[in-house]
């Protein structure tokens, strides 16, 4: 918020304090406070607030064009230009510009004069010089931003003169006045500039080259009025030999001035345009940019050169582009991209991407220039590796013609790399390396080819969305051919055979091309799940690749596969093509399944070139499965084999899909998921067991039919390449080596076994090295040289063997660890098939067989979830189990003859839930049991029985077999009864209250059967904690409507009475809790009692409440002292809530006495200073005055006692307030008895009467207490001994009278309260 300067605070109108006061000044202030708040909002830091305040101010002034507000606003804004806060000055300047733009009748000269008078530089004090300077500067900028300054020549000349005067104060303003002058003169017409130029520009070249602002002014005049400039200064050659060093210094200064803004100075861009205009661009670029600025070793100057390069791209022709794209500057830019890797280090690459993207968007009609720039940036390499990323997004802006040319250039570079045409460089760390292999051409060619092939594939990623099928096919054919084939003899029918290599293609390069090709296949197949990617002729896109591969195989004279096909493999290929033709001729019903099988055949057929032996067997099995699947009826869910020897086709296909999932290919993972979604309807128990065996570690470890593979070799090769690129990581690698050495030493020490020690002792004894130990007579003998040499050889061979054994053990450990990692990764991928089955076929009975295997995976993963991979497996399994299985809307409705097995499974799951150690794990087992109950309840055999119930009217219905659906309560009740008993008796049970509440809410009939178990544990020998849990279960279950419908009215009343008796027995020890569990038991008992009383009142049950009331009133004395803890206060609240439901109201005196206990220990002064509450600002002073006067009046009669402390008046006010309330009720004021005087036979009030009495309490009257004096009338009658109604213990007639008397008494209470307030105000005002 802007600080109020003295002039503003004393004079809101903005006028000076001296002189005559304006006639409308007071009227202006009284007219609108909103108008004055505009100026405060204008200076706020939030931009939205400033703009909104400016718009509102202008709208306010437009509505009053002739009023005094406009004059005040102008003065106020001019004053705000010189405020002390720097952030507020531009705000006032912008508002002033908007004001001048909206009201053009305000003369600019007068505004400029007011600015100079208000902020006079000659009269201002030295301490206020800086704000005054900025006020004048922002005032001129406001005139310029209004758009009227260039039209007013007089104001323009005065503004220019003022800016020239401000330029002399360089310490405060620096180059800001010169920059403002250049901005203003760039907008004026040529004639005006011609007249002003002699006044602003000196006829001296030294002055022109002295600062960037003067040089920019010179370039502006050179562009607009060259004749006048030539007349003023004469002919000037800025790019002469003597002027170039001065230009370099000026540009360096300009680069430093925009260091924080990170933008290109305008003077540099004007120099670039001038050099292009005069035809001296090569000289400017070579001598000024590369030989001048670039040699300064000043990063702001380097960034200026980079920005100049990006800005020059649209201005250069195709012949001029090689000059800037092949020099020292572009090499320096590449080195910056390689070395700028730290997080906090400035990276220029995003800014250069914007320059190049803008250039490509601007010249889409010139593909030659587009191609030249993209190729030039691609040629910037670091030891053969281009510095640009392979996913350079600006390539998407290329025109189709330029993109086709770029793809052709990439292919040519891959085939025949031209290392001489590259702008190659090495970093300082690379130059220090003495390894000759890092500088050879073979390494540079490999790095270049690897980048080019990845660049081609990433180009297809962008093309796939644009449907450039021809270009996609060209890239795919190129990658496929050079992955698996080589040319024997060129032919025109296969264009790829005519491509020659300048450097031979290495095997590791072919592996890179092969992996890139399958990545391309994945890109093309991403949309297969929605719709297969198809070509314009209607065929699947991958069908073209299969046709191309068949063409290559048929031209064996011209091309040959790298791994030649055997006769069996070639027959498998031919059978695959025949099967594809049969799939194309399928009916429309089986089209989706045929399409999935087509996609699978395509990919496995292409994998035949990568691994012929494995893919050949897969192709044969897939073709057999396809033939059998298309011949079967789709409705069969459990197919059997035709012969005992031959397994069903689904099982074979599942094994094939598992084999595909074992490969580290995301594409194969997608294909397996898609195919399985079409065949899961035919799944058999044996096929499902094949999937579940993978998740079982005991069975999956013994099976060898599925081999999990990885890309460790490829990763090691790529790791070697990455290690050579990052030299900064070598120190950390040395640290890792030292750590490895330490661990090796520990392993060596730990691996020394007793056998090795015995062998060592034998060798030493054989060499007589231990002769001194065996006998003292041989101690003086020494071994000869030959014996020592033989002993050394034996020891060396022994330690060498031991080292090999240690290394073998270590390798075995690493192998086992890698196998475990691969097995976990394989299990995560196999979970995709389970997720597909649960999602696509939730009503399949086989889904029920997934429960226990998934629970086993969750249990094992929760035990050993240390690694990230284990956590991923756990999270995915838990997500499938919870969201896709247990919470699914659809489930199996026809379990057939497996009902008995399901009941046994429910019992097994519930028992396992009770045996777990962790409650979170037990929750999964319990939810599985609830899911099976849901399946049993919704079984189709019981659906016909439940249909007639819908026609009956809603109301209480008896519980029975109809209400339980397909559940057999005789089987289910003992299962959960034992679990509930264990939960309520066992000390540490993993079962929790929410589990059983979920069971009760889903199956209320089962809840009815389990309620006796819960009621039994409310009291008795159970632990207090278990009693509390039983009370919570009853408290949450009883209010549910579903449970109420399972009981007849007499049964329900009997149940409530039974629970009430149990709770009453618990409440006899209320207030005697010593431990935390006992306190929780008391709270739960009172909460259950409140629930019961609420149920009795709502349903109007005939239940005897006298016993409960008597027990509660007998325990009242124990709750009176209370405590400071939250549990004690909560216990009291629950107690009085129950008493209120029984008709006994909580006395207000108890609350006040509880509050006054700490006040007794305080001094009277402290109670006087204690803040009573929040008051509005406008009433604080008035209220304090009234309270002080009241205190004085009330303190006068109480000062007679000599030893008494000064009274605060609170007790007297409280007494008077009590007297007023009793008098208002029509009874004389008497002393209120203590709360202990409440008799146990006090009548219980109804809840409705208490609700009616609450407004009177708020209005200031205190209702009758249960411990009222004998003189006060008691309208209630005593409670009868038997047959108390559940609604209220009192009769209806006295309750009605009480309501009438209370309603008629309310207005008088309001009036009496208002009269007492007026009387107190009058007393306070008396002197």
- Shape designation: extended
Low-pLDDT stretches are 1-27, 527-533, 633-644, 712-743, 770-780, 941-962, 1150-1171, 1182-1317
Radius of gyration over all CA atoms, rounded? 47 Å
Distance between the termini: 43 Å
Query: Based on DSSP secondary structure assignment, what is the total number of beta strands?
Result: 5
Query: What percentage of the residues does DSSP assign to strands (E)?
Result: under 5%
Order of strands across the widest beta sheet? 2-1-3
**How much helicity do the residues have?**
55-70%
Given helix and strand content, the structural type is: mainly alpha
Give the count of helical stretches: 62
Mean pLDDT: 76
The main sheet comes to: 3 strands, mixed
Pfam family, one: DNA_pol_phi
Keywords: Nucleus
Protein name: Myb-binding protein 1A
Subcellular location: Nucleus
Topology:
Blueprint: H1 6-10, H2 25-31, H3 33-42, H4 47-63, H5 69-80, H6 89-102, H7 108-118, H8 129-145, H9 153-166, H10 170-173, H11 176-185, H12 190-200, H13 205-208, H14 212-224, H15 226-232, H16 244-257, H17 266-278, H18 281-293, H19 299-312, H20 321-325, H21 328-339, H22 349-362, H23 367-378, E1 380-382, E2 385-386, H24 400-415, E3 423-425, H25 428-432, H26 441-466, H27 469-484, E4 485-487, H28 507-524, H29 542-554, E5 559-561, H30 567-584, H31 591-607, H32 612-631, H33 649-661, H34 666-679, H35 685-695, H36 697-702, H37 712-725, H38 730-751, H39 754-766, H40 771-774, H41 785-840, H42 851-863, H43 868-886, H44 899-915, H45 919-937, H46 943-946, H47 969-985, H48 993-1002, H49 1004-1016, H50 1024-1037, H51 1041-1044, H52 1049-1067, H53 1076-1099, H54 1106-1114, H55 1116-1119, H56 1126-1141, H57 1148-1160, H58 1164-1169, H59 1180-1195, H60 1210-1224, H61 1247-1258, H62 1292-1325
Parallel strand pairs: 1-3
Antiparallel strand pairs: 1-2, 4-5
Helix pairs in contact: 3-4, 4-6, 5-6, 5-7, 6-8, 7-8, 8-9, 9-11, 11-14, 14-15, 14-17, 16-18, 16-19, 17-18, 19-22, 23-24, 24-26, 26-27, 26-28, 27-28, 27-29, 29-31, 30-31, 30-32, 31-32, 31-34, 32-33, 33-34, 33-35, 34-41, 39-41, 41-43, 42-43, 42-45, 43-45, 44-45, 44-47, 47-49, 48-49, 48-50, ...
Main location: nucleus
Subcellular location: Nucleus
Biased composition (Basic residues): 1167-1183, 1209-1218, 1314-1327
């Amino acid at each position: 918020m802007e600080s109020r300067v003295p002039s503003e605070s004393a004079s809101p109108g903005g006028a000076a304090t001296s002189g005559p006061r304006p006639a409308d000044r007071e009227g202006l202030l009284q007219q609108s406070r909103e108008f004055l708040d505009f100026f405060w909002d204008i200076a706020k830091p939030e931009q939205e607030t400033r703009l909104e305040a400016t718009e509102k101010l202008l709208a306010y002034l437009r509505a009053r064009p002739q009023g005094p507000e406009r004059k005040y606003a102008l003065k106020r804004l001019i004053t705000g230009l010189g405020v002390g806060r720097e952030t507020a000055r531009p705000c006032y300047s912008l508002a002033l510009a908007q004001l001048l733009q909206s009201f053009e009748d305000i003369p600019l000269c007068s505004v400029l004069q007011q600015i100079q008078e208000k902020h006079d530089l000659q009269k201002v004090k030295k301490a206020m010089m800086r704000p005054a300077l900025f006020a004048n500067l922002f005032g001129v900028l406001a005139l310029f931003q209004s758009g009227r300054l260039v039209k007013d020549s007089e104001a323009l000349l005065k503004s220019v003169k003022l800016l020239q005067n401000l330029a002399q104060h360089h310490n405060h303003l620096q180059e800001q006045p010169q920059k403002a002058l250049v901005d203003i003169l760039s907008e004026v017409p040529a004639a005006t500039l011609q007249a002003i130029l002699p006044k602003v520009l000196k006829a001296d070249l030294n002055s022109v080259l002295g600062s960037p602002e003067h040089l920019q002014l010179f370039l502006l005049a050179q562009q607009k009025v060259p004749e006048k400039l030539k007349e003023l200064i004469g002919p000037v050659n800025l790019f002469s030999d003597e002027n170039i060093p001065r230009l370099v210094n000026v540009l360096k200064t300009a680069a430093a001035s925009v260091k924080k803004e990170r933008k290109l100075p305008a003077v540099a861009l004007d120099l670039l345009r001038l050099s292009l205009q005069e035809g001296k661009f090569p000289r400017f670029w070579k001598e000024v940019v590369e030989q001048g600025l670039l040699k300064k070793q000043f990063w702001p100057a380097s960034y200026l050169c980079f920005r100049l390069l990006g800005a020059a791209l649209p201005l250069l022709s195709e012949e001029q582009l090689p000059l800037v794209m092949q020099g020292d500057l572009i090499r320096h830019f590449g080195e910056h991209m390689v070395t700028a890797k730290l997080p906090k280090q400035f990276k220029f690459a995003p800014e250069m991407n914007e320059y190049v993207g803008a250039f490509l968007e601007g010249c889409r009609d010139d593909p030659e220039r587009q191609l030249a720039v993209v190729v030039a940036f691609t040629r910037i390499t670091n030891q053969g590796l281009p510095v640009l990323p392979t996913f350079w997004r600006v390539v998407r802006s290329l025109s189709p013609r330029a993109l086709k040319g770029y793809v052709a250039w990439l292919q040519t570079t891959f085939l025949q790399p031209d290392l001489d045409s590259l702008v190659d460089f090495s970093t300082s760390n690379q130059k220090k390396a003495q390894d000759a292999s890092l500088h050879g051409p073979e390494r540079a060619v490999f790095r270049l080819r690897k980048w080019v092939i990845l660049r081609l594939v990433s180009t297809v990623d962008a093309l796939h969305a644009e449907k450039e099928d021809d270009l996609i096919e060209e890239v795919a054919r190129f990658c496929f051919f050079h992955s698996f084939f080589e040319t024997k003899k060129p032919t025109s029918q296969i264009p790829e055979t005519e491509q020659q290599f300048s450097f031979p293609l290495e095997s590791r390069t072919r592996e890179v091309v092969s992996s890139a090709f399958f990545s391309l296949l994945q890109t093309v197949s991403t949309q297969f799940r929605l719709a297969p990617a198809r070509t314009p002729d209607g065929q699947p896109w991958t069908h073209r690749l299969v046709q191309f591969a068949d063409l290559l195989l048929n031209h064996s004279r011209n091309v040959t596969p790298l791994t030649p096909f055997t006769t069996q493999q070639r027959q498998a290929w031919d059978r695959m093509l025949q099967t594809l033709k049969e799939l194309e001729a399928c009916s429309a019903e089986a089209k989706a399944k045929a399409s999935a099988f087509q996609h699978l055949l395509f990919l496995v057929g292409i994998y035949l070139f990568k691994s012929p032996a494995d893919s050949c067997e897969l192709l044969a099995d897939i073709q057999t499965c396809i033939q059998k699947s298309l011949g079967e009826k789709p409705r069969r869910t459990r197919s059997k084999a035709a012969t005992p020897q031959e397994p069903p086709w689904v099982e074979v296909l599942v094994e094939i899909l598992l084999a595909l999932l074992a490969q580290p290919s995301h594409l194969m993972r997608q294909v397996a998921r898609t195919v399985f979604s079409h065949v899961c309807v035919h799944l058999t128990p044996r096929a499902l067991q094949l999937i579940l065996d993978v998740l079982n570690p005991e069975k999956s470890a013994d099976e060898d039919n599925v081999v999990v593979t990885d890309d460790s070799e490829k990763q090691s090769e790529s790791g070697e390449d990455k290690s050579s690129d990052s030299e900064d990581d070598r120190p950390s690698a040395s640290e890792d080596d030292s750590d490895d050495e330490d661990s090796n030493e520990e392993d060596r020490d730990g691996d020394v076994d007793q056998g090795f020690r015995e062998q060592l002792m034998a060798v030493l004894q054989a060499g007589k090295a231990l002769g001194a130990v065996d006998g003292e007579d041989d101690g003086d003998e020494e071994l000869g040289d030959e014996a020592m040499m033989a002993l050394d050889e034996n020891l060396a061979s022994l330690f060498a063997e031991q080292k090999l054994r240690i290394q073998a053990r270590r390798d075995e450990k690493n192998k086992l660890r890698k196998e475990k990692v691969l097995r976990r990764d394989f299990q995560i991928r196999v979970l995709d098939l389970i997720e597909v089955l649960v999602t696509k076929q939730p009503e399949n009975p086989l889904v029920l067989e997934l429960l226990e295997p998934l629970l086993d995976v969750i249990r094992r993963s929760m035990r050993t979830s240390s690694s990230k991979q284990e956590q991923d497996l756990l999270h995915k399994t838990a997500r499938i189990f919870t969201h896709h299985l247990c919470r699914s809307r659809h489930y199996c409705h026809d379990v057939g003859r497996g009902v008995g097995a399901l009941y046994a499974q429910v019992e097994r799951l519930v028992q396992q839930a009770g045996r777990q150690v962790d409650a979170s794990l037990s929750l999964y087992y319990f939810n599985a049991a609830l899911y099976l109950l849901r399946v049993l309840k919704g079984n189709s055999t019981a659906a016909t029985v439940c249909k007639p119930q819908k026609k009956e009217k809603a109301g209480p219905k008896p519980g029975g077999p109809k209400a339980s659906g397909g559940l057999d309560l005789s089987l289910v009740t003992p299962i959960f009864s034992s679990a509930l008993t264990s939960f309520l008796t066992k000390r540490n049970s993993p079962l929790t209250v929410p589990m059983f509440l979920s069971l009760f809410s889903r199956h209320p009939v089962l809840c009815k059967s389990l309620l006796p178990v819960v009621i039994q544990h409310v009291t008795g020998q159970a632990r207090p904690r278990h009693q509390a849990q039983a009370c919570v279960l009853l408290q949450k279950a009883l209010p549910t409507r579903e449970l109420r419908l399972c009981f007849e009215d007499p049964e329900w009343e009997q149940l409530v009475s039974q629970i009430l008796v149990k709770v009453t027995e618990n409440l006899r020890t209320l207030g005697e809790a010593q431990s935390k569990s006992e306190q929780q038991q008391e709270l739960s008992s009172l909460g259950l009692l409140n629930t019961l009383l609420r149920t009795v009142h709502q349903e109007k049950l005939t239940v005897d409440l006298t016993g409960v009331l008597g027990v509660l009133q007998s325990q009242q004395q124990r709750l009176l002292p209370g405590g400071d803890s939250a549990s004690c206060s909560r216990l009291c609240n629950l107690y009085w809530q129950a008493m209120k439901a029984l008709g006994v109201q909580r006395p207000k005196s108890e609350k006040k006495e509880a509050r006054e206990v700490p006040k007794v220990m305080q001094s009277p002064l402290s109670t006087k200073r204690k803040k009573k509450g929040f008051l509005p600002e406008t009433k604080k002073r008035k209220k304090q005055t009234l309270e002080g006067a009241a205190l004085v009046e009330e303190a006068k009669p109480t000062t007679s006692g000599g030893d008494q402390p000064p009274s605060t008046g609170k007790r007297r006010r409280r007494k008077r307030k009590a007297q007023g309330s009793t008098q208002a009720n029509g009874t004389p004021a008497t002393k209120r008895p203590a709360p202990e005087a409440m008799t146990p036979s006090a009548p219980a009030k109804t809840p409705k009467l208490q609700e009616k009495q609450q407004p009177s309490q708020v209005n200031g009257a205190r209702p009758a207490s249960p411990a009222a004096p004998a003189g006060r009338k008691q309208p209630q009658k005593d409670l009868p001994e038997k047959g108390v109604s559940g609604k209220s213990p009192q009769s209806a007639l006295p309750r009605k009278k009480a309501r009438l008397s209370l309603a008629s008494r309310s207005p008088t209470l309001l009036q009496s309260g208002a009269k007492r307030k007026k009387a107190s105000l009058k007393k306070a005002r008396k002197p």
